[in-house]
Amino acid sequence: MYLIFFFFFQELHAHLSGSISDETILKLLGTKDASLSEDIIEEMKSILKMKDKRSLEECFKIFSLLHTLTNSISNIKTCTYDVIKEFSEDNVWYLELRSTPKNVIGSYTKEDYIKAVLETVREAEKSFGIIVRILISIDRSRGVEDAWDTLKIVKELRNNVVYKKYIRGIDVSGNPSKESLLEYLPILREVREMELKLAVHLLELCESVAFEEAAEIFSEGLVDRIGHGTFLNQKLSGKTSHLVNVVLERKIPLEICITSNIKCGTVKDLASHHVNWWKNKDHPIAICTDDKGVFSTTLSDEICLYCKAVDGDIQDVMDMISTSIEASFLDENEKAGFKTANF
Ligand SMILES: CNc1ncnc2c1ncn2[C@@H]1O[C@H](COP(=O)(O)O)[C@@H](O)[C@H]1O
Ligand SMILES: [Zn+2]
To answer: Which residue numbers delimit the Adenosine deaminase domain (predicted)?
Structure first.
């Protein structure tokens, strides 16, 4: 299986803040940024020590803590640059990085945040010969008003050809136990109008409301890729949802993040991971990291886990690589060009 290290990969599901490595965190803590209290620094150091299992709820506390690190434009740039560098060192030639624009009063606006990320992406592409595209995240726990505000900024930025080239889509993420996605349907329709691609975290929890959300989103054909879809193929009240057939028929690709699911406890172990079920159906999947910093993983580790889970070989890895280029938010000409360049 060590042969996989000769491959070049695509990463389609990586959250910027969750991907920040321990090295970058320690570097930023070492700069003694005056706005970080001693308590936050201590808390940050303690989360670096415990990297095993933690519940989804605990993960969201860690994300809030990580957000205190990106409290200046200079820190946002450092984190973005380092994350891209680390993916590139892990043989990633194409990266779709997603992040939630934030504003910090007196420091930066959401627009400044996005511009800082995009400028750093351009710089990092030149330094590392990697191709990076950006998905702007909507965090469902921040409310619909916040999402409309983000969308308005994205619309304006996309009037600029350079920004348009980099911003390929919208991601909907955030704590799935907060706010129903049904509230966000008008936002998702607007994303479609803007001709942006859409990736939505769906069915991370096995709750009836999660099935209702997914049913609405599928019925309007709003989603291009599904984040996790952990419980799509599971039985609820003894029955498998009809939604699984919709996803299979429409071949909506799934972004699969094995370590993230296991460490959050939404999947018990590798043997029971849903990736095997979807692979057996020959369904398009992309193996991804989700939050490589928070979960201490790399894309090559995830691909090794995938091989283990499906008892796969090099051909399975090559097939998955090819499917995930197809599932990427590159346009058709770019896909064709990159396919010939990679194989
Ligand atoms: C573990 N499974 C997950 N499920 C749902 N949302 C997740 C997530 N992992 C990360 N995020 C989303 O990404 C944000 C951090 O990156 P950015 O600040 O946007 O760069 C988190 O706050 C959350 O909204
Ligand atoms: Zn995610």
So the answer is: 11-337
How far apart CA 142 and CA 138 sit, in angstroms, is 8
- Structural domain that includes position 232: 15-342
- Residue 309 belongs to some domain of the structure: yes
Query: What is this model's ipTM?
Result: 0.99
Question: Which ligand is nearest to the Cα of residue 139, counting in written order?
Answer: 1
CA 175 to ligand 2 centroid distance, Å: 10
For residue 108, give the DSSP letter: B
* Amino acid code (one letter) for 289: T
The structural domain count of the chain equals 1
pTM as predicted: 0.96
Q: By percentage, how much of the chain surpasses pLDDT 90?
A: 79
Residue 9 is assigned to a structural domain of this protein: no
**Cα R_g (the chain), whole angstroms:** 19
pLDDT in tens, 191-206: 999 999 999 999 999 9
Kindly report the CATH number assigned to the domain that includes residue 281: 3.20.20.140
Q: Ligand 1 centroid vs 261 CA: distance in angstroms? A: 13
Instruction: Report the 10 Å Cβ neighbour count for 295.
Output: 25
Q: Which of 12, 13, 15 to mutate to test the pocket of ligand 1 (most atoms within 8 A of CB)?
A: 15
Which residues, judged by CB distance below 6 Å to any ligand atom, belong to the binding site of ligand 1? 15-18, 59, 63, 67, 99-100, 137, 139, 173-174, 201, 204, 260, 264, 290-291
pLDDT (tens digit, 9 = 90+) per residue, 236-272? 777 778 999 999 999 999 999 999 999 999 999 999 9
Q: Is residue 27 part of a domain?
A: yes
Query: How far is residue 74's CA from residue 287's CA, in Å, rounded to a whole number?
Result: 31
Residue nearest to atom 18 of ligand 1 (CA): 17
